[in-house]
Amino acid sequence: MVTTHNLGFPRIGERRELKFALEGFWEGELDEKSLRETGAKLRTSNWQDQEQLTLAPVGDFSLYDQVLDMSATLGNLPDRAGKADENELDRYFRIARGRSPGDSDCCGVHAGEMTKWFDTNYHYIVPEFDASTQFSLDPTRLLEQLAEAKSAGVNSKPVIIGPVTYLWLGKSKDNTDRLSLLDDLLPVYGELLQLLVDNGAEWVQIDEPILVTELGGEWRHALNLAYHNLKANPAKLLLTTYFGQLRENLQLACELPVAGLHLDATNARDEVARISDWLPGHKVLSLGVIDGRNIWKTDLNATLDWLEPVHQKLQERLWLAPSCSLLHVPVDLNSETTMDPEIRSWLAFARQKLEELQLLATALTEGRESIADALKTNADAILSRRNSTRVTAPQVRKAVAAITPELGQRKSDYQKRSAIQASHLKLPRYPTTTIGSFPQTKDIRQTRLRFRKGEIQPEEYEARIREEIRHCIHEQEKLGLDVLVHGEAERNDMVEYFGEQLEGYVFSRFGWVQSYGSRCVKPPILFGDISRPRAMTVEWIRYAQSLTDKPLKGMLTGPVTILNWSFVRDDQPRKDTCLQLALAIREEVLDLERAGVNIIQIDEAALREGLPLRQSDWQSYLDWAIEAFRITANGVKDETQIHTHMCYSEFNDIIEAIARMDADVITIETSRSNMELLDAFKGFQYPNDIGPGVYDIHSPNVPDTDHIVSLMNKAAERIPAERLWINPDCGLKTRSWDEVIPALRGMVAAAQELREA
Ligand code: GLN
Ligand code: ZN
User: Fold this and answer.
1) With a 6 A CB cut-off, is 39 part of the ligand 1 pocket?
2) Probe ligand 1: pick from 495, 585, 730, max atoms within 8 Å of CB?
3) Contact in structure between 672 and 701 (CB atoms under 8 Å)
4) What pairing do the DSSP bridges indicate for beta strands 503-506 and 525-531?
């Protein structure tokens, strides 16, 4: 039989059991024992789901984050976590979530920084290093789970993050060279591996996904050093890579002295032949043949077509697995009882993916005939998807094929059109605005929920949302803001709202994926050619404009963000899908313009998230992403002012692309960077208007007017004052009106002060 294994299973639970247990625990409604019991139950159930595998992962489960777990295992929680003899869970959550002053922590503890896990939408807690960093092993978590797995009858394969990737993921707080810590780190890994073996493990999965990124010489050297050092260890190491191709690191990955190598064969199919030639004869090659990042069924026959010869060559040295941890997909498709059955027949979530894996292994060992029925069913599903008229819309394809560069071109350049806009809009210097959403009160959420459930009629729903819009406009007028918004009360989520109205999308009910800690997202599923049957936002925004003489800013989500926050089709390049989205949102932009909306904001919060893992691939992504934005935005008249918004704090390396978007105004998150972020815009001589966020909306603190004035003065040192706007960092939907009103009042006062100065 071919060895099968899995790199990790979703830990949040089929019904988000872990989320609710965690939140109950944080609220003090659940004690530690119950939380730990929930964890144990989830692990047991996950192992049951993986019963058929030769090796099941152990240690992939985490109460918050696998990188933070590794920091705890290596004795590298920051000092502010508390003393080593304090409650372990307390220390862990202090770093996971931070703690406000009061309770047991007099001065409060700030959480560890969170950042994206490679190119996924999962976020991990960044390990912290400094010159005094020392490591010491705490194997408790892994040994407990190993023992648990043993008593559950699991053939265990512990999963850990490799030493070099661990250092790479972290940040040095005092410019200490992270790699200088490797010498101290390796003995701890040595100890850990020995202990795992002593406790019954034979194989250990050691993740070094940095092998699919561009590595400097010192990092490649560190990999060599680390694995030569760990070679003497009795554990059989499966060096594990995922999310991309090895490319220039291929030889290095093949030569490191380990017992096996795992390759993401969904991304690096082209490298399989070379690796199977190069890999020394004593090594195992594990191929990730099932896409762990997407929700489509695998084409089993097509996979077997290329896999069979590899199997013939490698025989028992070939292992099979999903491409990466299944953390990135929902648990069980069988929960989706209300989904369109045709589309459901094309999908596979974590449990289904493991079934597919089993089928492939059986077909390789016993021949395809042995699973003829299953292969036929699979082939039917693949064919049904390929031929479905719901997937292909000829008029959409025609429109994409007819795209010309002119479509993304404004009528006039920024200089000319900004003068036209100024004479139309008559805005004061330092115009004030917000990013779109206003507080989503309990009442609004309930109204939406009850409407969804059919408990209130469309007329009543509409009346309530209108009431909310009226209130929102009224408050903004009272505050004296210059450019108003309708407040987004009708939107649950900035992507889902549009996905629900576009042709080509379906939604799952339980398709949750962990984003960080207890936070989950339910990405909509983009399965077919995208079109917009009718206007999506115009009525609400037109209504809002009818209530005020001030200019109103219409609010849309851009094509790149919609793409990056969805599960997207794998049967065409992402670029093509993005262009389809661009054409659909473009129509909405033009409809808004026709409805008399003179300012339109197109949010691209997730533009940066789509950046490929290797910098050498960035340009081609940015080229089509920016083209898509331009197609969406630039069909308007000179009089119409286009805004865009982005909320992250790294622009340096993509500033050229941002400038190419050519939005008349860009609003960004800057308050926490003390306006230093604007250096990137200054250095590039960014030509258009900028609204640098003047206060952090994540915090309930009311910003101080003087502070805002001083921030704006700093901004004006970098960007000419006549091109500056004043706005918060991001949308206000998570705040309460009590917080929003004084904050915006301070902001408007600051603008007045600046104008008079
Ligand atoms: N317009 C959105 C809002 O204000 C933007 C959200 C975001 O940037 N993440 O909520
Ligand atoms: Zn934002």
Assistant:
1) no
2) 730
3) no
4) antiparallel
Q: Which of 485, 645, 670 to mutate to test the pocket of ligand 1 (most atoms within 8 A of CB)?
A: 645
Q: Which of 292, 233, 234, 232 is nearest to 262 (CA)?
A: 292
Tell whether ligand 1 has an atom less than 6 A from the beta carbon of residue 605. Answer: yes
pTM equals: 0.95
Contacts of 468 (CB under 8 A, 6+ apart): 444, 487, 489
Distance (Å, whole) CA 72 – CA 201:
21
How far apart are the C-alpha atoms of 141 and 159, rounded to whole Å?
12
123 three-state secondary structure: strand
Which one-letter DSSP state was computed for residue 50?
Answer: T
Q: Is 474 a catalytic residue?
A: no
Say how far residue 664 (Cα) sits from the centre of its chain: 27
Please give the Cα distance from 592 to 599 (Å, whole number).
9
**Residue 433 CB–ligand 1 contact under 6 Å:** no
Q: Give strand pairing partners of 432.
A: 726
pLDDT value, residue 107:
65
| pLDDT for res 104 | 56
125, two tokens: 């807690």
Cα(305) to centroid of ligand 1, in Å?
Answer: 46
Which of 441, 482, 449, 523 minimizes the C-alpha distance to 738?
Answer: 441
Contact 80, 96 (CB under 8 A): no
Contact 740, 748 (CB under 8 A): no
Q: How many other C-beta atoms can be found within 10 angstroms of the C-beta atom of residue 184?
A: 12
Query: Is residue 431 helix, strand or coil?
Result: coil
What's the pLDDT score for residue 554? Answer: 98
CA of 729 to the centre of ligand 1 (A): 10
CA 191 to ligand 1 centroid distance, Å: 47
In whole angstroms, how far apart are CA 491 and each of 208, 313, 443? 40, 54, 13
Which candidate, 665, 551, 537, places its Cα nearest to that of 601? 665
Give the mean pLDDT per block of 10 residues along the chain (757 residues): 96 97 97 98 97 98 98 97 92 91 68 92 96 97 97 96 98 96 98 98 98 98 98 96 98 98 98 95 97 98 98 97 98 97 98 98 98 98 96 97 97 97 97 98 96 96 98 98 98 96 97 96 97 98 98 98 97 98 98 98 96 97 98 98 90 95 96 88 96 91 94 96 97 96 98 96
Q: In what order do the strands lie in the sheet with 203-207?
A: 3-4, 318-322, 284-290, 260-264, 236-240, 203-207, 156-161, 56-58
> Tokens in use for 63?
């109460």
Dist. CA 735 → ligand 2 center (Å): 14
- 3-state SS, residue 520: strand
Q: Quick one: pLDDT at residue 102? A: 63
Length of the chain: 757
Element (H, E) at 63: none
What's the alpha-carbon Rg for the chain, to the nearest Å?
27
What's the rounded Cα separation, in Å, for the pair 741 and 208?
48
pLDDT tens, residue by residue, 327-359: 999 999 999 999 999 999 999 999 999 999 999
Closest Cα to atom 9 of ligand 1: 605
The CA-atom distances, in angstroms, between 501 and each of 496, 506, 533, 584 are 9, 10, 8, 11
- Classified as helix, coil or strand, 618 is helix
CA-based nearest residue to 236, from 269, 263, 200, 209 = 200
Neighbour tally for 281: CB within 10 Å:
6
From 356, 335, 408, select the one nearest 559 (Cα to Cα). 408
Closest C-alpha to 156, from 41, 37, 60: 60
Q: Which residue has the tokens 């009103």?
A: 741
Q: Would you give the distance in Å from CA 561 to the centre of its chain? A: 11
